[in-house]
Design goal:
Helices cover about 25% and strands about 20% of the residues. It is globular, with a radius of gyration of 17 Å. An eight-stranded mixed sheet has the order 1-2-4-3-5-6-7-8, with helices on both faces. The protein is built from seven helices and eight strands. It is an alpha/beta fold.
Length: about 280
Amino acid sequence: MLGVPDRQSTTRVLAALSVLLLAPQAGTAQDVMVEEGVVYASHQGSALLADIGYAAAGDGLRPAIIYVHGGRWRAGSRNGNGALDVREWASLGYFAMTIDYRLVEASPAPVPYQDTLAAVRWVHAHASDYGIDSDRIYLIGNSAGGHLVALAATLGDGPYPRTGGWEDARSDVRAVISVAGPYDLNTLSWGNLWTPVGEDPAAARRLASPMHQISADTRPILVVHSDDDQSVPVQQAIDMVDALAEAGIRHGFVHWEDRGHMAITDEVADAARAFIAEVEGDR
């Protein structure tokens, strides 16, 4: 069972996952609006872009999901291969958003994280424009994006200044789904790419490591990982799940054997929606 914070429940969820999705108000393909290249934030002349999808009509407020891409914080894009499909999620009743963020080879860390939080604030600030329930904002990301969404669930704003705009808006989320994400940057082979200027690297990476920022305020997290991931060792996920269980944080663990370094596949999307349905069942 997903989302129950004891170790026995987090050992394995089979790939043949069968779920009853408690979907929000579903639309049709004709109902869905997709907007590309929406400016969600700007910083020192750089416009940060997003694609959004939402149903043109519907009763009641809808949940939102924001996708954060992978690429070791130095590559990737909001609409690359394996990204979240905003049209599909919008047809299921979500406000869906995929974002670009500044990459570390041009703008050092922690700017990818600051941009992620700017996107969350943008959604909060525009909730009334799109009929979004501000208490039902979810994040999903893979690889480096999984790290960023897990950090949002654990660290929150942290000590980083708000950049990009919407500084007075909320930045909280209901829950996150981290797919093939790293959780301890100091033990990650490519963790040295996270190197803020003028700071002690080891201390900066520990601060940015979700596993070391778990607290009573940590939001529910679904951890998705595969044993044969060659970019982020599965031990990172196992250690993160153990830490969440020890802290009593609501979580789930989708643990596959042979999916490699995953993106947002159909089965990942199914598992994400099942986890969201369980979280929403607590309301």
